[in-house]
Amino acid sequence: MTRQDTIWKSDSLVKTFLEGVRGGIPFATEQIEIMLRVIEARGEQVERFVDLGCGSGVLTQALFSRYPQATGTLVDFSEPMLEAARSQLSQHAAQLSFVNQDFGAKGWLSTVTHQAPFDVIMSAYAIHHQPDERKRELYAEIFDLLKPGGFFINVEHVASPSEWIETLSDELMIDSLHTFHTRQGTSQSRDQIAHDFVHRPDKAANILTPVEVQCEWLREIGFQDADCYFKVFELAVFGGRKRSW
Q1: pLDDT reported for residue 22
Q2: Cα 209-210-216 angle, rounded to 5 deg
Q3: Model pLDDT for residues 168-208, shown as the tens digit of each residue
Q4: Residues of the domain holding 79
């Protein structure tokens, strides 16, 4: 299967996403708050982490707000995204490694294995571009990279169980984007934003899977407390913990 998400290597698409979409994702703050709450509930410091499909480094920035001494590896196959992350996280440059690598292939492991095991491996809106078979393989690879008690957390776009719920999800996203653009002072109408959202160039790259299915995969691999910790329509935060004993 030929990957469709190579479009994310485009400078123009990355610029459009970071400036016009990322800030308009509904409940983005709440998703990150849940992520941090789950990580903190481990009761241990985060010393080493991986941000998989890091984008502009939003998750890493949030993690540093609680664990400022942590060191991390940020992995993304889009150089424009990595450049955005380097800029956003420049004050933490000495604590970070940036890796241009495609985690859709097992070769990505060679870039992080020497630093394992990790306390946390996290991802946001990246793994859903992989076919289901690769998702499951990747979750198993993540499990092996975690130290006992380590946590995997995924802020993700998941499949709706019906067309009606998918429509509700799309309407929420369009409303949120319209509010975001209005606050930014742009003159785009809701109809224009809806048109651009429906016909967005990256839509074909999405391979969405129900969150319930993915949580069951995590349990089969051996993750403890695997669950969906937050969900609004197609926006979910889920993951699991590697047993400490």
Answers
A1: 54
A2: 105
A3: 999 999 999 888 888 878 878 889 888 888 877 777 789 99
A4: 5-161+204-241
> Residue 183 domain-assigned?
no
CA-based torsion, 63, 180, 52, 95: positive or negative: negative
CA distance 19 to 67: 27
**Residue-level pLDDT at 17:** 33
Count CA atoms within 13 Å of residue 152 on its CB side.
31
98 strand-pairing partners:
74
pLDDT beneath 70: ranges in the chain: 1-23, 245
* pTM greater than 0.85 (yes/no): yes
Task: Specify the number of domains making up the chain.
Answer: 1
State the pLDDT at residue 208: 96
Q: Judge contact between 231 and 210, C-beta under 8 A.
A: no
Q: What is the pLDDT of residue 199?
A: 75
In a domain, 189, yes or no: no
- For residue 117, the domain's CATH number is 3.40.50.150
Query: Nearest 5°: phi and psi at 189?
Result: -80, 165
- The sheet that has 96-100: what strands, in order across it? 96-100, 71-76, 48-52, 118-124, 146-157, 235-241, 224-232
151 in a domain, yes or no?
yes
Could you give the 3-state DSSP secondary structure of residue 213? helix
Query: Residue 240 forms beta bridges with which residues?
Result: 152
Residue 64 lies in a domain: yes
